[in-house]
Specification:
Elements (H helix, E strand, L loop, with lengths): L9 E5 L5 E8 L3 E16 L8 E12 L3 H8 L11 E11 L4 E10 L2 E16 L5 E12 L18 E15 L2
Antiparallel strand pairs: 1-3, 1-9, 2-3, 2-9, 3-4, 4-5, 5-6, 6-7, 7-8, 8-9
């Protein structure tokens, strides 16, 4: 008779100062503009025996947008783009997780921006795990996806005289997440 010991689901908090949500979008059809947001908070419930039973919830502070250009950041916070005053957070809640291999997975979840919720798929890679100088168990992940901003009501654009638009619809998103295991 074999008795298997199942590990308990562990709870991890996103370490906001060491995590970020980055985006890249084509500008004027020829260059890529990058920016980032602060990940306000989030929780990962990880089942080490069956990652498909894990789940994630996170929130991003919209007003934290930073592209390195103050005027552009103010425009992104406005109603033309994110309307940070009315919709102060983007949220994500996983609905399923698929294991690809020991270090990679695919996570589907509901992303909400400007009060519009759409399902997105994130390609997730486990970057490592270790104990920090304070004895806290830490893990790192990177997740990527691509969305159409218009699917979330982010519609502002301008036409370029020679043809094309100021901002592309396709947005590449990269999440760099540091998480700390909770007792």
């Amino acid at each position: 008779m074999t008795t298997e010991t199942r590990q308990a689901v562990s709870t991890w908090s996103i370490d906001s100062p060491h995590s970020s949500a980055e985006f890249a979008v084509k500008h004027m059809m020829v260059t890529t503009v990058k920016g980032r947001f602060a990940i306000a908070d989030g929780t990962l419930h990880i089942d080490p025996d069956d990652p498909t039973r894990s789940r994630v919830e996170a929130a991003i502070d919209v007003a934290s947008v930073d592209t390195g250009v103050a005027d552009r950041d103010a425009h992104l916070r406005s109603d033309d783009f994110f309307n940070a005053e009315r919709y102060p957070r983007f949220t994500f809640k996983s609905t399923s997780i698929e294991r690809v291999d020991d270090a990679r997975g695919r996570m589907t979840g509901d992303l909400t921006m400007r009060d519009v919720t759409r399902s997105v798929v994130l390609d997730v890679e486990f970057e490592g795990r270790g104990v920090d100088a304070f004895g806290k168990d830490r893990a790192g992940f990177v997740a990527t996806t691509k969305i159409n901003r218009k699917d979330f009501g982010v519609n502002w654009n301008g036409a370029i005289e020679a043809g094309g638009v100021v901002v592309s619809d396709a947005v590449k998103i990269t999440l760099n997440v540091a998480a700390v295991r909770q007792a």
